[in-house]
Amino acid sequence: MAKKKQKSARRATVKAAARKPARKIVKAAKKKAARTIKSHAFKGKGGLALSGVRILDMTHVQSGPTCTQLLAWFGADVIKVERPGGGDITRGQLRDIPNVDSLYFTMLNHNKRSITLNPKTETGQKIFTRLIEECDVMVENYAPGAIDRMGFPWETIQKINPRMIYASVKGFGPGPYEDCKVYENVAQCTGGSASTTGEIGSVPLVTGAQIGDTGTGIHLAVGIIAALFQRERTGRGQRVTCAMQDGILNLCRVKLRDQQRLAHGPLKEYPQYPNIPFGHAVPRAGNASGGGQPGWIVKCKNWENDPDSYIYIVTQAAVFPAIAKAIGRADWLEDPEWNTPEARLPKLDQMFEEIEKWTMTKTKFEAMDILNPLDVPCGPILSMKELAEEPSLRKTGTVVEVDHPTRGKYLTVGNPIKLSGSPTTVTRSPLLGEHTDEILRKIVGLSKKEIEEGRKSGVF
Fold first, then answer.
1. d(Cα 444, Cα 78) in Å, to the nearest integer?
2. What is the per-residue pLDDT for 46?
3. d(CA 326, CA 362)
C-alpha cells in the first residue's frame, strides 16, 4: 500500500511539472543550480581564510604583487606568471647581491608559486586559457590594453570562465589621463598627497610610504574579496578595478574635507592661522596634525647626532594641563594668554618651542615614558633600523625573518592584518619558474613530453 502511494505521488509530481510553463521550469532549474554552485573558496572547513581560492597572478613590480601577496598570506594559491628567461623586472632591480633575486622582488612575492609562460605563442595561449578555466581570480597591473592585446579581453575571459573575477590596477579611471602610465610618485602628485605635504610655503613633497603602489594594491585586494563573496550568491565573476589616483585620494580624504571647509573661512587648526593668509586650496602644513588637534615633531636629546631623535606630540585641550606641568610651565594654567585653546592658537609655534626645550633634555623614549602615562598622544620617530630590531614586531609576525635558497636569511614585513582563526605563515618568494612543471602537470594537465617540447620551443 505504501509503495502504491509513493508511485502515485511521483506521477502527480511529474504531471504537475509538465503543466508548468517551460520558462518557469528553466527559472527554477537556474535557481537550483545557483544554490548548488560551490566555489573553491568554501570547499574546505577551517584552514586559512582563502584556502581553495586560486589566483592567476599577471602582476609585476609593486602595486599588483602587493595585492596578490596579501591574498597568498590569507591562504590563496597564487600562481605568478612570468616571462621565460627574465621574469618580473624587479627580480633584477636594486640588487644588493649579484645574480640573486633582489629584496624588491622577494619582499613582494612571498607565499606564491612561479610559472614561466609566453602567452603570445599558440601553445602558450592554450595553456593560458586552461589557467583561466582553473582559476578563480586573475589580477594584472599592466599598461592599459596589454591583456586585451594578448587576445584575452574581459569578454573573452567571461566566455572561458563565467565565474572568473578579473582585477586590475590602473593609473587613472576614465577621463583625460586614462591611457597614461603611472608610477608611485606620479600617483601621489595626481591624487592630492603631494600638494598637501611639505613645509609651510615650500615645495610639494612625496611621502616615503608607498601609498600609491602598496595602498592601491590593498584597495584592490579588498575589492577581490568582496567580489568572491558576492559570487557565492550570483555564481558569476565580475571586473574589479582600482585606479591609483582614486586610491591616493581616498587616503587624502581629510584634505578634501578641509578643501570644502576652506570655502567657509580659514582653517584655524592649521599652523598658518592667523599669521599667514590662506589661498584657494588646502595648503601644505608641515607636521601639523590632520585631525584638528595641534601637533608637531620636536627635537629630543642628541638630535645633533641622531637624525631620528625626535618625537611627535599632540597637545589636545584635555591633556594640556598635564603637558604644561610635565615641562615645567604650570604657570600657563593661570595665564589667560595660554590657558584656553583659543588663546594658544595664534602662538602654537611658541608653545612647541617651549615643549621642545623640555624634550631636548630627554631621549625620545624617556619623553614617551613620561607623556604616555599622562594620556598625551605622542610617538617617537622610529628609524627603519629600530623597527627592524624591535622584538615586539618580531613576536607579532609584523617583521619576519625568511630563509631563501640563494639569498640566505633576510627580513621582510609580514601580514599586517591579523586573523585569530587564520594565522599567516610567511614563506619565501619563488625562484623564477620554480613551479612550472608542477603547475603544467597538475593544473593544466600536460604530459612530461609536452612540457619538454614546450620548453624547447620557448613557451616556458
1. 15
2. 60
3. 12
Provide CB contacts within 8 A for 62, sequence distance 6+. Answer: 90, 108, 184, 210, 213, 214, 217
Catalytic residue among 88, 136, 213, 258: 213
Would you say 416 and 98 are in contact if contact means Cβ atoms under 8 Å apart? no
How far apart are the C-alpha atoms of 197 and 207, rounded to whole Å?
A: 8
Q: Which helix (H) or strand (E) covers residue 116, if one does? A: strand 112-116
Asked if residue 336 and residue 235 are part of one domain, the reply reads no
Identify whether residues 244 and 372 lie together within a single domain. no
Tell me the pLDDT tens digit for each residue of 163-222: 999 999 999 999 999 988 899 999 999 999 999 999 999 999 999 999 999 999 999 999
Q: How many domains does the chain have?
A: 2
This prediction has a pTM of 0.88
pLDDT tens, position by position, 228-265: 999 999 999 999 999 999 999 999 999 999 999 999 99
Q: Of 376, 405, 425, which residue constitutes the final position of a domain?
A: 376
Cell numbers for 404: 631563501
Is 213 annotated as catalytic?
A: yes
DSSP per-residue string spanning 9-20: HHHHHHHHHHHS
Domain that holds residue 336: 294-376
